[in-house]
Amino acid sequence: xxxxxxxxxxxxxxxxxxWRAARGPLAIAALLLAVxxxxxxxxxxxxxGVLDPQSPAQQGSMALATLLRERGVTVExxxxxxxxxxxxxxxxxxxxxxxxLSRIQLDALAATEADLVLLAPSDGQLEVLxxxxxxxxxxxxxxxxxxxxxxxxxxxxxxxxxxxxTYRAPRDAIxxxxxxxxxAALVQVRAGGRTVVVLGGDDxxxxxxxxxxxxxxxxxxxxxAHPRLVWFRxxxxxxxxxxxxxxxxxxxxGWVWATYMGWVxxxxxxxxxxxxxxxxxVEPLPVAVRAxxxxxxxxxxxxxxxxxxxxxxVLRDAARNRLATLVGTGDRTGMVAAVAARxxxxxxxxxxxxxxxxxxxxSAMIELARALDACEAEVRRA
Amino acid sequence: MALTGRLVLAAGVGAVVxxxxxxxxxxxxxLAVLLVGVVADVVLAAPVSALRLRRSGDAAVRLGGSATVExxxxxxxxxxxxxxxxxxxxxxxxxxPSRQRITVPPGERRRLTTTLTPTRRGDRRxxxxxxxxxxxxxxxxRQGSHDVPWTVRALPPFTSRRHLPSRLARxxxxxxxxxxxxxxxxxxxxxxxxYVIGDDVRSxxxxxxxxxxxVVVRTWRPERDRQxxxxxxTGRTSAGRVGDAPRLDTAMDAAxxxxxxxxxxxDTVGLLAYDRTVRAQAGGAGRGNLLPSxxxxxxxxxxxxVETDVRGMVAAVLARxxxxxxxxxxxxxDPAIVTEGLLPGLPALLxxxxxxVAAVADPRVDELAADRxxxxxxxxxxxxxxxxxxxxxxxxxLTRRGVTVVDEPPERLAPAVADAYLALKAxxxx
Lengths: 382, 430
Fold this sequence. Notes:
Chain A has 382 residues and is α/β, with parallel strands linked by helices.
């Protein structure tokens, strides 16, 4: 074998060029990371959500919780059914979202002997916590209503915004804020040896609406009846923690390792397809403009300016030029006479066509253009 | 380095193995097997940078035809090269196949053939050759690029070639004819022959008649060895697309027909392409080489988006055409070009040369001018009539000064220019 005589053509990658190409994206990624860290560090932790006693947002309830604390009520938060174990008589439990409670949490609530305040519960929860009370409608009033009952808390508060849901109650219950059908937005029943208050909405409890009408007084009276208030913002919980098992524990063990290997396979597939066979070749494209573009642009200008008179004059001028070569004379009288003679039209009509006033509107201009064509065609035929 | 589909397949099989024999040990074992395979492949693959690549093949092809370019891959190493090779060309080069598999045993060389079918005129430069060299297991590969320069020039197609035979026939008629009985500019003495009835009595050569027994007339023929200078304007107006092609391409086609015809007629043909500076020059070569040299000079020309410096163009023409010439100017008939550039420069040109101005007319303008369907169409017709009037005025201004103006749509431009040339030649005005 003879040694190849060709000069080496291989391209070597310059580490400095690689660094130059990579540093831009790396800098952007670092910047994004830094911004994310700073934002996460600086964002207030108190802004947590609707009816949160620590949230100063519009829909939070920090104002109400603060007022209650100033009155000497201990406000504590409960998140799970386990937190309710030590709650008993002499406390009030506020349930902002009864519909989110699981069966276990409902049972735990029912087991406590504390008084309950439920905000807009549905029939499912009412069955467990306040038997006999049912939902009447979900289209109640959003405007303040008079109390119209004997419940001291409501009477002291006066008119208040109670919310959208109204309830039917058993005879022995106290109903307040009734609507015209006899359903009530606030129901107080005695069930299982404690008092349960069902309220049709949460408007009276939010920072935004607390100051309206008697909202604050109603909320304070309902929640401040006992020295201890438990704010039960339940987190989802299913089976007790010590019995919980993760998804991976439920699957056969082989699945887990096969899935891990599947992820590795997917990663390899990505790397396989992502590697290009050489760089992208750029096509040096030539300049290409449609030559008639300028003419079409000028036509659009005429049209936008509604330059009918100008357009008609140009068309007439072109027609006159062509007719002049056909009939052999270019002056006005001579041409009109010659065209009239050849076509048999009246000279006045020909004169109006070729030298007349500008058209009054677009349809007249179209007519004129077609008439010019027709006249020219007649002259050619003659 | 690059991974392969086979590695992904192996990893998929590994996932099944992990499912059948669960446990971290299996998982790690599969990973280790894959890793060892990849490392072995990368280490054992033939090195790419050591390859020696060389090109050969066609350097030019007429647009519409195909060229073949060969790439010889020599493997001087000790390991066999099993590779996927991509010979990269710009898309308009129409390269096929774009990637090829190749096996080169150690110390040998293999030839790869790429067929190029360019879709646009001009130079097409090869980009890099990228080689992906697979290892013995086919799980991973080394990858690297070589820069092996090559250029294939796509020449103008010369579609107006079909008009050449008829024009050559006319030329032969012209040459053989002794109709130019009167001596004038651009004619030369041809021969003496006997008088026949109908000949102009003014062409009787009395001296020869006295020597001979019969009446003898002198005949003249169009002068040969005249100069023809073709000037292409590559400025803004040449970029406009009329029909399917830019004006420049149409002008090139007409220029090629004219060049071929003039060369057969025994004239010397030159080419000048100009916008703000000289873009290309050709000509002065022997007759046999004229057409190739014209075509090669035109091939890389592209329209430039600049206003043509017409005065500079006239100066360049005057500098180039030292003898009396026929100057054929392929440009636009825009009023701006004609009144501001051409008219001031014309006197200098016309005192010494004969000038043809050839322009590509746009059939689309005629279509617009005839449309009466609605208001927008009539406005467009007015705009088109205005454009035609401006063109006519510009053409009339040139004609008045003694310039022959050819303003034809693309498909008729080339024969029309050839006819104008023949007419001038027949009239002895060259």
